[in-house]
Structure formats: structure tokens, C-alpha cells
Amino acid sequence: MSLGQQLAPHLPFLRRYGRALTGSQTHGDAYVRATLEAIVAAPDEFPRDVDPRLALYRMFQGIWNSTNLDQGGDEGGGDDAESIARARLARMTPMSRQALLLTAMEGFTPEDTAYLIETDADEVDELVAEALREIENQTRARVLIIEDEPIIAMDIETIVRDLGHEVTGVAVTRDEAVALAMEDRPGLVLADIQLADDSSGIDAVKDILGEFRVPVIFITAFPERLLTGERPEPTFLITKPFQRSTVKAAIAQALFFDETTVPAA
């Protein structure tokens, strides 16, 4: 099997990580492209002594660390949301954010994460704890949940409330989601893709974003369909079935890049 064939199944999830890390589909996907270009340009430098997925993320980390655009490079620097994010980075180091996303969202072990960010497993545990402390002190939001499966909706609602956020409503159809959003504007939307009446959570979100700006996290059992890099796609994505830690990390990152988020008291 060629190297390209080995890496292809992992690219959607690397896009998910890149988008979550940068808060942008455009910027995250650009890092993924740069990673692939680096592999094509110097295939002998691709790590062959570890699992291909781990090696792919290691190459991505090398690109990320070498450009360090997340802290004010020339990637559009004047944008308000990015300015807010850079200000928050002064209180949460980039490495702690990476450790949290790599473990909670991407599912790497502390040992694998240590390899990716070039530290040791004990330090990874400390970095994740640091990131979680910062999150708990940093953001509170009012959340609209769009989910037609009652058990999953209740699970998400419990997680959201336990994190200290307020739930403005739970919608099961596109029309209901839009109506709830217009009635009580949320500061964050968590949306399933397929809804009860065969309507689309994506269409519901498009309708909502047509009225006002709000960060969105999509929830889907088929993430590969929304992580192609070929069209406008979600920046933040949770894969079903999900872990509590995954939802927490995704919410934290979505709010991290949102300039309207109110810091916790």
C-alpha cells in the first residue's frame, strides 16, 4: 500500500484538528495542505517507525510549530475574532490547547500526545489540566441544541449545563431551531445534521447565520462527509458516539474564537 493510501483515511480527522486548533476552516485546511506538501517534497522525512496516523499528525505539528501563525502571523492579523483569540492565548499557552484537543477530540493517548508535542506523558496530563482550568475560568454561553434523538439531546443538555452554560432550548426540526434562535438568541449552537422531519441541521444553521453571527458545532455520525476540504464546511465537528471530554473541548474551542463570549466571574 502506498503512503498516500495509508494517509487518506486520516486526512478528514486531521482537518478537524486543524480547524479546531485555528478556529477556521480556511486556516486549518491550509495547515493540512502544507503538511501534505511537505511530505510530498521530502518523503524520506516522514516517520516510518510509528503508526501512519501518528506520523501524519507529527508532521502537522512540525508545520504548526514552524509557522506559529496562531500567535499573530500574517494569516489575516487584523480580524477581530483572531485578535480576541490571541489575547486569550496570553492566558492559555498554545501547547496546553494542543494537548487538550489531541487527547479529548482526536483520541490520542497521553503517550502518543507526548510524542506529537515533544514532551512526556506526565507533562501532557499537566497541560490538559491547565487547559481545563483556563476553560472553566474563561467562558460561559447560552446554548441552543438542535438534536432530534431524545436520549442524545438530554445527554448533550446535561453536559452543557454541567459545564456552567445555559441551554436556551432544544429543537428537533429545522423550523423549530430557527424559531427558537430568533426568539432567544443563543451564544452557541450545537447542531445534529439529520433532523426528525428529514430536514437538515445544516440548513437550520444557515438560516440562523443569515440573521446573526454565532459559533456552531456540528454533531454527526459521518464526519468524513463534512471534512473533505473541497467546499465550505464546519469549523467545529463532534463525531457520534461522543465522549463528554470531546464535547467540552469542542465547546471550549468554539467559544475561544468567539469575540462575544463573556468571561466567567
UniProtKB/TrEMBL annotation:
PROSITE patterns, per database record: RESPONSE_REGULATORY
Domain Response regulatory: 142-255
Domain of life of the organism encoding this protein: Bacteria
Keyword Glycoprotein recorded: no
Modified residues (4-aspartylphosphate): D192
Tagged with keyword Thylakoid: no
Pfam families attached to this UniProt entry: PhyR_sigma-like, PhyR_sigma2, Response_reg
Transmembrane annotation, as ranges: none
Keywords (A to Z) from UniProt: Phosphoprotein
GO biological process: one example: phosphorelay signal transduction system
Family annotation (PANTHER family): PROTEIN PILH (PTHR44591:SF20), STRESS RESPONSE REGULATOR PROTEIN 1 (PTHR44591)
Protein name as annotated: Response regulator
Gene source species: Sphingomonas gilva
Classification of source organism: Bacteria, Pseudomonadati, Pseudomonadota, Alphaproteobacteria, Sphingomonadales
